[in-house]
Inverse folding.
């Protein structure tokens, strides 16, 4: 078993100590946010980003790459969780409340290992995926992922290093595999756009025509730049 630095435990007590002093409704709110609320928020943000792709992207090429980026966000999260499984089994770090009995634990029944945090990994991978499509919404998503990390420590179910590791793992998977994912997903999205029903779900903007016919892709740079394109 690894020996963990005391600053990690000190910070755990500092953040979790807020739960001891908070009223009951605050703890219940943080429990819901940390367990489900952030995930719901990221889904809503991804849908809002998708709406921006459908309505505001100026070319089919921009729309296809943006939509492929949104598909990559949940796929990156799934891959990151799969990568995390052997890490958790290798490290075998117990939940903090098993070694520190005086913590204020807001949610019971956590029996799996603590490092790396699944919630932090999942939310950060999705957040980075959104960032690759939209800087504006991506920054909001990353802030939500950081809030998720705070909630997990506040709830007494993770050490601070657990959630920092989750942030790093989710970021690494989403960024490092993004070029390969976009290479594979973008042609599939373009093919799907040939189907009229699916096309309206991906892009609803006009196709700019060159003189003499033919679509002109990318004549005007999109303000909400697509980092993954």
């Amino acid at each position: 078993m690894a020996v963990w630095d005391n600053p990690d435990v000190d910070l755990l007590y500092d953040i979790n100590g807020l739960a001891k002093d908070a009223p009951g409704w605050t703890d219940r709110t943080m429990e819901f946010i940390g367990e489900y609320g952030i995930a719901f928020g990221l889904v809503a943000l991804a849908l809002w980003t998708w709406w921006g792709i459908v309505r505001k992207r100026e070319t089919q090429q921009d729309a296809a790459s943006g939509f492929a980026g949104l598909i990559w966000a949940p796929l990156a999260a799934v891959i990151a969780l799969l990568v995390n499984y052997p890490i958790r089994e290798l490290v075998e770090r117990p939940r903090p409340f098993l070694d520190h009995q005086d913590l204020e634990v807001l949610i019971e029944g956590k029996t799996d290992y603590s490092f790396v945090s699944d919630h932090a990994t999942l939310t950060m991978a999705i957040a980075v995926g959104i960032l690759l499509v939209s800087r504006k919404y991506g920054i909001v998503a990353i802030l939500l992922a950081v809030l998720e990390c705070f909630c997990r420590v506040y709830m007494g179910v993770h050490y601070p290093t657990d959630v920092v590791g989750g942030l790093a793992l989710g970021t690494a998977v989403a960024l490092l595999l993004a070029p390969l994912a976009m290479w594979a997903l973008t042609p599939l999205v373009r093919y799907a756009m040939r189907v009229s029903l699916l096309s309206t779900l991906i892009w609803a903007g006009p196709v700019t025509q060159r003189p003499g016919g033919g679509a002109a892709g990318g004549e005007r740079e999109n303000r909400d730049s697509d980092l993954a394109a």
Confidence is low (pLDDT under 50) at residues 1-5, 207-229.
